[in-house]
Automatic annotation (TrEMBL):
Residues 731-742, 847-867 have a biased composition (Acidic residues). The keyword Coiled coil applies. Residues 711-867 are annotated as: Disordered. It holds the Pfam family DUF6697. This is DUF6697 domain-containing protein. InterPro entries: DUF6697 (IPR046520). It comes from Lentinus tigrinus ALCF2SS1-6. Keywords: Coiled coil. Residues 165-234, 305-378, 411-445 form a coiled coil. Residues 769-782 have a biased composition (Low complexity).
Length: 867
């Protein structure tokens, strides 16, 4: 029963709310005075809350009293009110917009019954709660929000009543004014009624008199009728005459109006003439004075005219004499001009002969300038190559010097500009000799200060106090190109990749900023682990070169466990917009030659290691997608060295048989043309977006552990060199990556055979020629020296201002040196490749052929990781 009462009150409130909504939407007007629908709805909502509280008290204290909600009168009243509300709802649903309707549920009697019921229930609740010491927090009406709503509803009701009272007051004033007006009108009507009665009495007396007169008039009417007939005829005649007179009168009126207008115009013209006459008198006086002044000036002009006539006569005589002189000069000039014409004809014939000679000379000069330009470009190329890879290009510089000397001997008779090229070459030659001397001194100093070790020296900064295994791994994080690339704290050394990169253009940076952020929480706040290409090859497999690394047959257990067949190793030095740290986004420039088929469509997914110099950080699992190429403005943001390197790569990879635009590349002769086309926007460098999706901490921890084992183990397998590995058919079970120590005597014999005039200790002996580098497919030949230990002291390079610590990490990273105790013998270590005793006809492995045909040969040049 209690739940029924609550549901009934809730249903009653919902019906009233629906009625209020219909009234507002359909703009229904009521026939009689009514209360605002929102006020009725507010009372119903309060009644609903009060009924709920009363039911709650009745359940808790059933014998406290006879509750109002349990009485039959309350139920009957509720049913009656609910029935009225339902009837109104039915009528409101059927009625149209802007209609007038009798709504019972907003009449004052209706809301008064609701308010009386609410008052009884609230009093009942208050008395029961007071007598039984009920916790008022259980009652809805006592809660702050319900009290606030009750106050708000009372405020709305009060505002409505105040507005209604103001409307009633205005209506009362209007009614009082109307009553006063009606009173005045009533008094006026009473006075008019009295006057009318008096007038009626008078009219009745007059009516009697008129009746008598009417009898007399009837007798006279007969006589008058005959008179009327006669008068009618006369009247018709008079009417025709009157009509004629009226027409003539209208004509005369129009003539009079015209005459009046003409009279007005004449008067106005006479007035204007009178005013003009008055003004003319003043003007005549002024003109008279001006005329007298003009007469005076005329007399002066007559005198001046006489003087001018005399002067003109003299001028005319003088002009005649000058004309005679000019005629004589014209005759003389004509004769001189004829002589000049003859001389000009002779000069034109001579000029024609000179033009032929000049054209021949210009052709010779252009040919000489072209040769000079090629020589200057070649010299600049030699200079940059010498600065970057000085030992490797010693032989090229000698050959260029010989070519330049030959060209200078061929053109030394007529071309003075080539002497500048010769001087540049001599300067480069002198610098080459100085740098060779410095390299010899540095090599001797390093050989004297190297510490004899039985294992590979770690690439690390000065060792810290901590000697644990993790500390040994951290020690190998500290070799880089610049001091800004490294930072040190109590956790070890950290590699700063951003120091190797360059700013990304705003539009590309905005795209990266819009991508979701990946949060990387390294354990204990440690810096990211630092890897090398050798350690990555040992941990996952694959080559130590190339941006796209494929590990299929050479994959390690870790790579197979995580289903890794390829991973990316972009380097900040050549891909300056690569991700600057774990979990961050970036770009890389891949897509030349056959690489343009990579990462198209919806993209691919790869693990990414980003490097700065020779060292790399694991950045996460990435979505790799090709995007729009670089614009001319974005290309201009790249560092100059990256532009030059990428132009060389473009020239090497696009100028091939697989080139799609062969006509264009037939016109391109060198790298400088490619760089100029990039700078002008004729070529656009491809771009690939790297979006980090996640950073797998389990995978990263396994990488860290494997990296630590790689650097701490004394005996470790050499990194597999997939792109250059060779197998002998009869040695299929041997390891893919071999090393062999060869005595120095064998090297001396080989050097004597190749270069008999070059001693082994000279700089040219340790730098292979370009032909040797091009043909050395079996791997790089590196020098290892072992000498007795000496105190580690810094070595200064005179003239260069460079101080190198003993066992410099940068030189170790460049030459991949390993010191061994060998009893004073100098040995060569040949990593990877074919055994010196293997047969020349051995076949490549399946993995080597797959890599050479696929990604290894396609992406090596994009990042230029060949050490």
């Amino acid at each position: 029963m209690e739940d029924f009462l609550v549901d009934q009150a809730r249903y009653f409130a919902s019906i009233l709310a629906a009625n209020a909504q219909h009234i507002e939407e359909k703009r229904v007007a009521t026939e009689h005075y009514s209360v605002h629908p929102m006020s009725v709805m507010n009372h119903a909502e309060i009644l609903q809350v009060a009924v709920g509280d009363s039911v709650t008290l009745q359940k808790e204290y059933p014998h406290a009293r006879n509750y109002v909600v349990s009485k039959t009168e309350f139920s009957l009243l509720q049913n009656q009110l609910l029935g009225l509300a339902l009837q109104d709802r039915a009528r409101l649903q059927d009625t149209g917009t802007n209609s007038v309707l009798e709504v019972q549920s907003i009449r004052p009697q209706f809301i008064l019954q609701v308010a009386e019921t609410l008052d009884l229930i609230v009093r009942d609740i208050a008395q029961v709660a007071t007598e039984s010491n009920t916790d008022i927090s259980k009652l809805e009406m006592c809660k702050p929000w319900e009290v606030a709503k009750l106050v708000m509803r009372l405020r709305h009701l009060l505002e409505y009543h105040i507005r209604h009272l103001e409307a009633l007051t205005r209506s009362k004033l209007d009614a009082d004014n109307l009553a006063a007006q009606l009173q005045k009108e009533n008094e006026s009507v009473v006075a008019q009624h009295t006057a009318a009665q008096t007038r009626v009495a008078e009219l009745e007396g007059k009516l009697v008199t008129l009746e008598q007169e009417l009898a007399q008039v009837k007798t006279a009417m007969d006589a008058a009728e005959a008179r009327v007939d006669m008068i009618t005829k006369e009247s018709e005649l008079l009417q025709s005459t009157h009509a004629q007179c009226a027409s003539k009168l209208q004509e005369r009126d129009s003539d009079i109006a015209q005459l009046k207008e003409a009279h007005k115009k004449l008067i106005q013209s006479y007035e204007a003439q009178a005013q003009a006459a008055n003004g003319s008198e003043a003007k005549v006086a002024v003109k008279t004075e001006e005329l007298e002044h003009i007469h005076v000036e005329r007399d002066k002009l007559v005198g001046d005219l006489a003087e001018l006539q005399a002067s003109y006569e003299h001028f005319r005589l003088q002009r005649a004499e000058e004309m005679e002189q000019l005629v004589k000069e014209k005759t003389q000039l004509h004769e001189a001009l004829q002589k000049r014409v003859d001389e000009t004809n002779a000069m034109e014939a001579h000029s024609t002969r000179l033009k032929g000679t000049i054209s021949q000379l210009e052709a010779d000069v252009r040919a000489a300038e072209t040769q000079l330009t090629n020589s200057e470009i070649q010299c600049d190329t030699w200079k940059s190559m010498v600065e970057d890879l000085l030992p490797r290009h010693t032989a090229e510089l000698d050959a260029a010097h010989a070519i330049a000397i030959q060209e200078r001997e061929m053109r030394e008779a007529g071309d003075a500009l080539l002497q500048n090229a010769a001087r540049k070459i001599e300067d480069l030659e002198r610098k080459q000799r100085e740098q060779n001397d410095e390299i010899i001194k540095l090599r001797e100093a390093v050989a004297q200060n190297n510490i004899v070790k039985s294992q590979r020296l770690p690439i690390s900064p000065p060792p810290s106090v901590d000697k644990t295994g993790s500390s040994l791994v951290r020690k190998r994080k500290a070799a880089g190109k610049t001091a800004a690339s490294w930072s040190q704290d109590d956790k070890g050394f950290a590699l700063n990749l951003a120091a190797h990169g360059s700013p990304i253009p705003p539009e590309r940076a905005a795209v990266l900023a819009s991508l979701p952020t990946v949060v990387v929480n390294l354990p204990d706040g440690e810096s990211p682990e630092i890897f090398t290409r050798q350690s990555l090859s040992n941990i996952l497999g694959g080559s130590v070169q190339g941006l796209v690394v494929r590990c299929t047959n050479s994959a390690t257990d870790l790579a197979r466990r995580y289903d890794i067949t390829e991973f990316l190793c972009p380097n900040m030095d050549h891909n300056a917009w690569s991700p600057p740290g774990p979990g961050q986004h970036g770009y890389m420039q891949v897509g030349l030659g056959r690489d343009r088929k990579l990462f198209n469509g919806e993209g691919e997914y790869r693990h990414v290691f980003v490097g700065g110099g020779k060292f790399f950080l694991y950045c996460g699992w990435y979505h790799v997608l090709r995007v729009d190429p670089l614009t001319k403005e974005e290309w201009g943001v790249l560092p100059p060295k990256v532009k030059t390197t990428y132009s060389e790569t473009t020239f090497n990879k696009e100028n091939t048989r697989e080139c799609t635009n062969k006509e264009l590349w037939r016109t391109i002769k060198n790298t400088q043309q490619v760089l100029a086309m990039y700078n002008q926007g004729e070529l656009r460098a491809p771009l690939v977006r790297l979006q980090c999706l996640k950073f797998d901490m389990d995978f990263y921890q396994e990488l860290v552990d494997a990296n630590g084992r790689y650097f701490t183990n004394k005996q470790r397998p050499a990194p597999p060199n997939v792109a250059k590995r060779r197998k002998v058919a009869d040695e299929a079970n041997e390891d893919d990556d071999k090393e062999e120590d060869i005595p120095m005597a064998l090297v001396d014999d080989k050097v004597d055979e190749d270069n008999p005039s070059v001693p082994l200790g000279s700089p040219s002996a340790v730098v292979p020629s370009e032909e040797a580098l091009a043909s050395g497919s079996s791997g790089s030949v590196l020098m290892d020296t072992s000498v007795p230990a000496a105190p580690p002291t810094p070595v200064s390079m005179a003239g260069a201002g460079i101080v190198l610590p003993p066992s410099s990490p940068s030189r170790q990273a460049r030459y991949d040196a390993r010191q061994q105790t060998s009893g004073g013998l100098i040995k060569l270590r040949i990593p990877g490749g074919r055994s010196p005793h293997s047969k020349p006809g051995s076949k490549d492995s399946d993995e080597e052929r797959e890599v050479e045909d696929g990604l290894s040969s396609e992406s090596d040049d994009d990042d230029l990781y060949a050490d």
